[in-house]
Design brief:
Strand order of the largest sheet of chain A: 4-12-11-10-9-5-6
Number of helices of chain A: 15
Distance between the termini of chain A: 88 Å
Number of strands of chain A: 17
Largest sheet of chain A: 7 strands, mixed
Oligomer: homodimer
Largest interface: A-B, 115 and 115 residues
Structural class of chain A: alpha/beta
Chain lengths: ~475, ~475
């Protein structure tokens, strides 16, 4: 076979060499051209097709570099010995992707993950972004520090020291693209042999991340002060994941005594650590924020984690953790080589946002806003107070209603759903439902509902409480 | 003890209630106030200090919520029973953080990780960012799709289909904050039982990530076509990590025959997968880019990975992977709940950058720019061609010099360093140095050096080759 009659389209967008390449590749794939078949010489083919020889050469080079043909010195080009190649299956689009079911849209949603975005300082954010983008430009797009930009870490450090009583240096801070990512990294730093204790109920994302990473995760019983340290000791775990400032979802503040007990537990052996997730400590409505557990840790036993997702905006994918010295060394050994997961521009925007005092102002504004919603919600609920008791109401952006109206959580949620209100059952937050008598409890988040909506929603909820 | 003489500073920035709180907390910590001690009543203390009663109440409430004191109905406030609390150690700043040694600054650096940033279309980027920030604002800062914004995934999908022959739907794409993160996630999707095969030499970051995640990682021998499939089969691994378009660092293009062999291997059992890292396929200087391995995979065996770090800018922390159907299901089961690691604004900027044709134009511009540097480098090297042979020069942004001047890699690198030139030894990229005879090989990256610098640097290198 020495002639290839290719119907070249000179008016096509596809270059001529590519048309030749595709034609020959197709013939090889379909088995029309067989292993060992000789191709026409570049000169013969170019003459035959009335095109330049370099065009044919380019097509042959492409076929050769992809392994379809081979050149043999002084003999020409031959189809490669490609076993099974002509059996190339039809590539059909893969099966329809996993369907994501569209969730029911409620009229009122007491979601616990809401953040009020109407109050976001858009114009300031835009102004800072604009300024940053006018800076030294090549530098902006060059790879940054793997731990996060030093200036940002310094700003975070100052904030943590002043607002949270955290005792750290910028060198101990790792900035990452969200808590999920940092928990994954922290898991790897702690090592696959770690046995992780979580409260029950707890922040389920953390539990799932550790579980997905194949860690042994144990749930530890709680009392009204938080994680039971005796049970923790009995569990054989060496890492305790806790939220001392405001337990999620119970809203418990861990008292100083329990904190000290927990620290003592950690000090007993070298491999023990406490992960302090300080996810929404910024919002407290009575007195000042509860200082961090990390701030009373003298032995480098606490990993402190915080996030801008609650305090600035969820779409700002930026969290940070403060590593104690031994874990920082392990981080350096294992992960210093990793690139930062946060874009440099975003880091510089947040740094400036903090340094120019906008962050503090924003937090104060949000605290006042949430406090107002909190007060309105509590006030509206008063009317129905015989049907439940309230807890967890001094901080954060949600509270708990312990039902006394004889309804189960499911019944209550179902009845609320019929009236287009989304409320959340506490049992959803348990890893294992406790065997002891369990009081049906409903969670109401109010960050993303304005006062008017809260009033209306509670009015409707009232008919659910009283089973009208 | 019924009186507390607190020296209140009315002109201080610290609120009065906080001064009282800190004074009492300090006394408890230091052991001056002991467990069971009764505090003055709020009325008595407010009278004594001549301040309002509500101020004292606020201080007591704070102390109570942190667990330092307890209120007993009709009896008053008492210091809590806090074991060991007065032993609270001095919190000293933790040991100086891990020192990062400042690397030597060379005059000329043939780094393999360079990206030319002078050619980045800053003004277009700024324009798009500005437009995006003027859009529906709350939506911008609300949590987005965990896989990445659908519009961006669609744009990536179109690009991959056209430019790389990848056969996929937007539903199969996961956008993440860099390859490192996606590899970590992919590792967890594949499961901790996976045994991962990498080429030797290989992209060491990938090896280290898998190794840090405690996977069993094996290195597989290579020949001139890439990973040896027989050795792969013998290794007992079920996941193969390869770079078929342009092996890093050897620059090998995997021929179609080897690709088919690799796919056949993967099809043999259900748990086998191939990870195709297509890290710099955009840059090819002869003919058109080599199509992806994923594009000839009919059985859903290939995970395709790509990144914008090389093609746009390193500080844009954005990569993507295309999951075959079975792994997509596993992703949905394990990780659909994770939040995206890339900020929504960045995603929208890149989406628009792609959709308005800027990405294609940018790639063409960079390809031309790098080709020029590539040509200049090859041309300059010609003069010294007796001292080495060249390989891997048809694509990517680096090439290999196999030394024939009798020097070892270390000797060559050391001699170059004395002349302020940073070159890289191939042995750095081996996980285990092969036992067979090893030819000293130097890697030269040219993405981040302009033509003038390349000329000067090669001139100096000449004296190293010839040992002058």
């Amino acid at each position: 076979m020495n002639e290839l009659t290719i119907d070249l389209k000179t008016d096509s967008k596809v270059p001529l060499y590519e048309q030749i390449y595709e034609y020959i590749r197709g013939d090889i794939r379909k088995g029309y051209l067989k292993s060992g078949d000789r191709l026409p010489s570049t000169r013969a083919l170019s003459k035959h097709l009335e095109i330049s020889r370099s065009t044919v050469e380019l097509a042959y080079e492409q076929l050769e570099s992809e392994g379809y043909i081979e050149s043999m010195p002084y003999r020409g080009f031959f189809v490669s010995q490609i076993e099974d190649l002509y059996e190339l299956k039809d590539i059909r689009p893969q099966k329809a992707a996993v369907q994501q079911k569209k969730p029911h849209q409620y009229l009122y949603d007491f979601t616990l993950n809401g953040v009020d975005l109407k109050s976001f300082p858009y114009s300031i954010w835009r102004k800072i972004s604009k300024e940053i983008l006018l800076n030294d430009q090549a530098e902006l797009f060059r790879l940054g520090d793997s731990q996060g930009e030093y200036g940002l870490r310094k700003a975070i450090c100052n904030y943590l020291h002043q607002a949270r009583g955290v005792n750290c240096e910028p060198e101990q801070i790792i900035v990452g693209a969200g808590n999920d990512y940092l928990l994954m990294m922290l898991g790897s730093i702690l090592g696959s042999e770690s046995r992780i204790a979580v409260e029950n109920p707890t922040y389920k994302r953390a539990y799932r991340i550790f579980d997905n990473m194949s860690f042994r995760v144990r749930t530890i019983e709680m009392d009204q002060s938080g994680m039971n340290v005796e049970k923790l000791r009995d569990s054989g775990c060496n890492v305790a994941f806790v939220m001392p400032s405001h337990q999620y979802p119970l809203g418990i503040v861990m008292p100083i005594k329990r904190r000290m007990e927990l620290l003592h537990w950690a000090e007993e052996t070298e491999d023990r650590y406490i992960i302090e997730d300080d996810y929404d400590s910024e919002f407290r409505y009575k007195g000042k924020p509860i200082p961090s557990l990390q701030g009373v840790d003298a032995d480098g036993k606490v990993v402190y984690m915080g996030t801008f997702s609650k305090s600035i905006a969820p779409a700002i994918r930026m969290s940070y953790m403060v590593l104690p010295f031994p874990l920082l060394q392990e981080y350096a050994r294992k992960f210093r080589f990793l690139h930062s997961t946060v874009s440099k521009i975003d880091q510089l925007v947040v740094e400036q946002f903090m340094e120019e005092g906008y962050y503090e102002r924003h937090l104060n504004k949000m605290r006042a806003l949430y406090k107002n919603r909190h007060d309105v919600l509590l006030n509206c609920l008063k009317q129905w107070k015989d049907y439940f008791s309230i807890s967890g109401e001094n901080a954060g952006v949600h509270l708990l209603l312990h039902l006394k109206n004889g309804m189960s959580e499911e019944e209550f949620m179902e009845a609320a759903k019929k009236k287009e209100i989304h409320v959340y059952g506490l049992s959803e937050y348990y890893i294992t439902i406790p065997t002891k008598k369990y009081q049906p409890t409903i969670l109401l988040g109010y960050a993303n509902m304005d006062e008017g909506k809260i009033k209306k929603a509670v009015e409707v909820l009232g008919t659910v409480f009283s089973n009208e």
